[in-house]
Amino acid sequence: MKAIIAEDEFTAREELKYFIKNYSSIEIEGEFEDGLDVLKFIQQNEIDVIFLDINIPSIDGVMLAKNISKFSKKPYIIFITAYREYAVEAFELEAFDYILKPYDESRIKSMLKKLQMAYEEKNHSSPKKSMLNKINLWKNDKIIVVDMDNIYYCCAKERITVVYTKDQEYFVNESISDFYSTLPKSKFFKCHRSYIVNIAKIKEIIPWFNNTYNLKLDGMEFQVPVSRSNVKEFRKIMNI
């Protein structure tokens, strides 16, 4: 798998290179600090993945991703940024993942593993359905493969996490924080210490006590709370 890194901060670029070299077989074909240089390179060279900082000179990461989305063969885009507020836009651009700085080593390892699986599924003949957007959950002592887009919200219950779709509930034997670390941040937000919400399923944002919110999800009566400590990040993500 061939990749480039578009990142204008030397320290962040070196740290990311360290993780890529130690936890994957990805070949780094180039490093860039300027968005225009990135665009010129990918127009002339075929790559499989781009690690893309949002705040880079000339052409920012979001604009680059919009250009890349028009390519006949699109590389996987992994946004690397210190800002949460672009997560919704990244989701709309079908980014593979959205990694926040400062980097979390376990989060990077998990992302690289998923990336390798997605690449192998895409580039090798196989009757298996791609696991790119799938997740394994438990129900009645069986492992059920669920499309992430069908998840509405998740709730912490004692030492497990309960995962809700529109009409089913499943569970995973992980704390809600550990489970959240495996989910793409472009799609999901931990809005409360006990809740994760699928951003795309939010239908109404209802003001609540102490400047918090309750979230009404599409087609569901239950309202997911946004805790006071998460209100600021939530407002950035939802542009409110």
UniProtKB/TrEMBL annotation:
Keywords: Phosphoprotein. Residues 2-116 form the Response regulatory domain. It comes from the Bacteria. SUPFAM superfamilies: CheY-like (SSF52172). CDD domains: REC_LytTR_AlgR-like (cd17532). GO terms for molecular function: DNA binding; phosphorelay response regulator activity. The modification 4-aspartylphosphate is found at residue 53. InterPro entries: CheY-like_superfamily, LytR-like, LytTR_DNA-bd_dom, Sig_transdc_resp-reg_receiver. It holds the Pfam family Response_reg. Transmembrane segments: none annotated. This is Stage 0 sporulation protein A homolog.
